[in-house]
Amino acid sequence: MRELCGDFLVINPYTWVRNACVYFDSKIREVHVVESTNSPDKLRRHYYTIITHGLASAHTHLGLYPIRSSVSNGLDLDGWVRIYAWPWEKYLRENWRLTYVNALISLEELVKSGVTAFADMHFNEEQVGLATEKVGVKGDLSIALMDGGVYESFEEGLKENLYLVNKFRESKLINVRLGPCTPRLLTPKQFRNAVELARESGVGIHTHLAEVPHDLTYLKKKWGMNLKEFIKFVRLTEVNSLVAHGIWATSVIDDFFTSRNVYVVHPPRSNVLLGDGRLPLLKIISEGTKVALGVDVAPTYNIIDDMSFALALHYQGLRPISPELFFSLGSEGGYRALGLGSGDLVIGEAADIVVWRVRKEAFTHPISSIVLGDARVSEAYVNGELVFSGNTLTNLSENEMEDVREEFNEYLCDFIKSHPYCQA
After folding, report:
1. Residue 332, class by beta-carbon neighbours within 10 Å (0-12 exposed, 13-18 middle, 19+ buried)?
2. What is the mean pLDDT of residues 50-78?
3. What pLDDT was estimated at residue 145?
4. CB-CB contact of 190 with 223 (8 Å)
5. How many CB atoms sit inside 10 A of residue 118's CB?
6. Does pTM surpass 0.90?
7. Is the predicted pLDDT of residue 216 greater than 60, yes or no?
8. So what's the pLDDT on residue 44?
């Protein structure tokens, strides 16, 4: 049995206690308030410790980490995909080892921001799974299924995704879904085929819906369907579904977003920087939509940056929004969306725990200190195992990470030789 004690222990985003300890093995066994002491050592400390449940990024593209800053170049989604994403993804697809070392580096940044679980949709996901197990965090993986692109066909990607399901079926850290990427890159029949296979395989779906207005006009022009008709045709509410974005889907809130199987994943920075639009977040939450946060592809893979960004983005000129809401979306929302538990620090939950430090002069409140970026991760545990400490991943040595970064940079140099636009 392990013990962690902190100046503040966050039970859930709206409940915290002073001077408490959590006792755990693979699960949380006890939470206990202790008598406050003002020992000389404690008084001399320049920081407070805050203990919370781990966070989750419920929509992530680890494979796009090397081109993350390009989303700030003033392009819309389609322009960015054409100029930056497609060339990089074709190179990445051809270099599976690059996927592995890239995943280690991007996961390191996620864990540094308190992320202990994530959902990833991309290519070469077997390598992402191996990197995830090496780091020791929890991954929810899917292949970005499309008719063409980096694959010869929809069937090729689907075969790879089904292989992934079987590959990690017994893993204690990896869950797999099917990933029909978006209605714009699949026929309705192909999308429905993926949903039906997911249901038969006992897995969920990870997809993009209504990210930009063109998603809706495309469905109508190409297939003669509105979004509601498309969702009904592909039977999306019949499986557990992570739906990234959903910005332009207010027409289906009542009978789709409020379904018990559907979680909308909101990546605020990605949406703004690529000009997608602004999700009516407060409205859909008030109407019963279940929401989680995701980094997607952003200038940093730090979920706290998305929390603080969202806090400003969704202010509507009325009363301020509480930081607790966004911490809830990043903890409870993400963990529940991924089917990993409540996301709260309560007895019986998996011991996915984060210890934060915040300098005393910067401290305001245990949640706002985290959401506003004043706190730093000191330790992170997954299923009771230490995966991050002293600003490093514990399952990789310093020499291993140095070799990983050197190999990663060699791949980037090779890519840039044939893609001069990336030199900027």
Report:
1. buried
2. 97
3. 97
4. no
5. 29
6. yes
7. yes
8. 64
pLDDT of residue 8: 97
Burial class (CB in 10 A: 0-12, 13-18, 19+), 218: middle
- As beta bridge partners, residue 143 has 122
- Rounded CA separation 313/421 (Å): 31
Do 155 and 19 lie in a common domain? Answer: no
- Residues 6 or more apart whose CB falls under 8 angstroms from that of 37 comprise none
Q: CA Rg, the chain, in Å?
A: 21
Report in angstroms the alpha-carbon separations of 132 from 106, 151, 186, 395: 11, 24, 29, 11
Please write down the HEC assignment for all residues of 131-192: HHHHHCCEEEEEECECCCCCCCCHHHHHHHHHHHHHHCCCCCCEEECECECCHHHCCHHHHH
Q: Is 423 part of any domain?
A: no
pLDDT at 422 over 60: no
In a domain, 413, yes or no: no
φ/ψ of 205, rounded to 5, equals -125, 145
User: Domain span at residue 266?
Assistant: 55-337
State the average pLDDT for the chain.
94
Give dist(CA 237, CA 256) in Å, integer.
7
Beta pairing, strands 15-24 & 2-12: antiparallel
Main-chain dihedrals φ then ψ at residue 283, nearest 5 degrees: -65, -50
CB atoms within 10 A of CB 208: 25
Whether 374 and 295 map to the same domain: the answer is: no
116 contacts 354 by C-beta, under 8 angstroms:
yes
- The answer to whether residue 39 scores a pLDDT higher than 80 is no
Q: Write out the two tokens for 405.
A: 């970064």
What pLDDT, on the 0 to 100 scale, is given for residue 424? 43
User: Hey, how many other C-beta atoms are within 10 angstroms of the C-beta on 187?
Assistant: 13
405 occurs within a structural domain: no
Q: Measured between alpha carbons, how far is 424 from 422 in angstroms, rounded to an integer?
A: 5
